[in-house]
Amino acid sequence: MEMIKKIAVLYGGSSSERQISLQSGEGVHKAIKELGYESELLDFKNITNFNELKIYDFVFIALHGFEGEGGELQKNLDDLDILYSGSKEIACRNTWNKRLTKEILKKNNITTPLWLETKLNKQLVEDGLQTSFFDKFRPYKYLFLKPEEDGSSVDIFKISDNESLKNAYQKCINPNRSFLFEEYIEGRELTVTIINKECLPPLEIITKNEFYDYDAKYISDKTLHVEAELTKNELDKIKSISLDAFEALDCNGWARVDLLQDKEKNFYIIEINTVPGMTSHSNVPKSGSFLGLTYNEVVQKIIDASF
């Protein structure tokens, strides 16, 4: 670690998650300076040549959305032998795309809710939920409709009937892309932070909203993120399935694994985030706090896990 003196914090960008990325980057930048490193904040939208980053010993990626999590950035940094935080190109591509994530999880016998890939178009809405396309889910009370590629719960809808499907189509910010219909699992929503292949204490997310949507994540002050109450057996299981998913998707350094637990106490992987939020109220530093770790100490652990 003696070689690491000057760290660039890459943040911002142009995705729908820009505002969250700005908060994450500012928090990480402040922590890095307080930890004794030199540091500069760099907005990704101002980067014109990746060679600009070669003057830094290390790049901390606090860039959310496709620009930071889709794999292209990691490929460019690897091509220039620039050290950076988090997973490599392939893991990022596979986790950014929810269909690929689920296919890899299924191949490795890791439980994930059932899904179907679709296009969100007028024909789908006109045909409705009664077609044979939805037979694999029956019987069902709800389905989730979500983009195959996106973050921060943008364009995610809870579907119960043809009217809610029609409303989702009308409200969708960007319907011109691939979507997934996903099985609705009734139960608890949980998240596990992994740093250097070690699980931090799992969190349970409790929201007053219908589900953990964008408002519940970033706007509502009624959403709770609490240390999950789990039996020793449940704790062992959630850590095991989270690490299995982390390794099956070839993740590196750090990530956040999002899960559901059904009424029968079974765990299901929803997705893996290779560049989790690092705002002051994000799940990663919150999980660390239950081990007595400060925000700065969590940042240092992420840097250490990159080598």
From TrEMBL:
<dbReference type="Pfam" id="PF07478">
    <property type="entry name" value="Dala_Dala_lig_C"/>
</dbReference>
<dbReference type="InterPro" id="IPR013815">
    <property type="entry name" value="ATP_grasp_subdomain_1"/>
</dbReference>
<keyword id="KW-0479">Metal-binding</keyword>
<dbReference type="GO" id="GO:0071555">
    <property type="term" value="P:cell wall organization"/>
</dbReference>
<feature type="binding site">
    <location>
        <position position="273"/>
    </location>
    <ligand>
        <name>Mg(2+) 2</name>
    </ligand>
</feature>
<comment type="function">
    <text>Cell wall formation.</text>
</comment>
<dbReference type="InterPro" id="IPR011095">
    <property type="entry name" value="Dala_Dala_lig_C"/>
</dbReference>
<dbReference type="GO" id="GO:0008360">
    <property type="term" value="P:regulation of cell shape"/>
</dbReference>
<dbReference type="InterPro" id="IPR011761">
    <property type="entry name" value="ATP-grasp"/>
</dbReference>
<keyword id="KW-0436">Ligase</keyword>
<feature type="binding site">
    <location>
        <position position="258"/>
    </location>
    <ligand>
        <name>Mg(2+) 1</name>
    </ligand>
</feature>
<keyword id="KW-0963">Cytoplasm</keyword>
<keyword id="KW-0133">Cell shape</keyword>
<dbReference type="InterPro" id="IPR005905">
    <property type="entry name" value="D_ala_D_ala"/>
</dbReference>
<dbReference type="GO" id="GO:0008716">
    <property type="term" value="F:D-alanine-D-alanine ligase activity"/>
</dbReference>
<dbReference type="GO" id="GO:0005737">
    <property type="term" value="C:cytoplasm"/>
</dbReference>
<keyword id="KW-0961">Cell wall biogenesis/degradation</keyword>
<dbReference type="GO" id="GO:0046872">
    <property type="term" value="F:metal ion binding"/>
</dbReference>
<feature type="active site">
    <location>
        <position position="282"/>
    </location>
</feature>
<dbReference type="GO" id="GO:0005524">
    <property type="term" value="F:ATP binding"/>
</dbReference>
<protein>
    <recommendedName>
        <fullName>D-alanine--D-alanine ligase</fullName>
        <ecNumber>6.3.2.4</ecNumber>
    </recommendedName>
</protein>
<feature type="binding site">
    <location>
        <position position="271"/>
    </location>
    <ligand>
        <name>Mg(2+) 1</name>
    </ligand>
</feature>
<keyword id="KW-0547">Nucleotide-binding</keyword>
<dbReference type="InterPro" id="IPR000291">
    <property type="entry name" value="D-Ala_lig_Van_CS"/>
</dbReference>
<feature type="domain" description="ATP-grasp">
    <location>
        <begin position="102"/>
        <end position="304"/>
    </location>
</feature>
<keyword id="KW-0460">Magnesium</keyword>
<feature type="active site">
    <location>
        <position position="17"/>
    </location>
</feature>
<feature type="binding site">
    <location>
        <position position="271"/>
    </location>
    <ligand>
        <name>Mg(2+) 2</name>
    </ligand>
</feature>
<keyword id="KW-0067">ATP-binding</keyword>
<dbReference type="InterPro" id="IPR016185">
    <property type="entry name" value="PreATP-grasp_dom_sf"/>
</dbReference>
<keyword id="KW-0464">Manganese</keyword>
<comment type="pathway">
    <text>Cell wall biogenesis; peptidoglycan biosynthesis.</text>
</comment>
<comment type="similarity">
    <text>Belongs to the D-alanine--D-alanine ligase family.</text>
</comment>
<feature type="active site">
    <location>
        <position position="152"/>
    </location>
</feature>
<keyword id="KW-0573">Peptidoglycan synthesis</keyword>
<dbReference type="GO" id="GO:0009252">
    <property type="term" value="P:peptidoglycan biosynthetic process"/>
</dbReference>
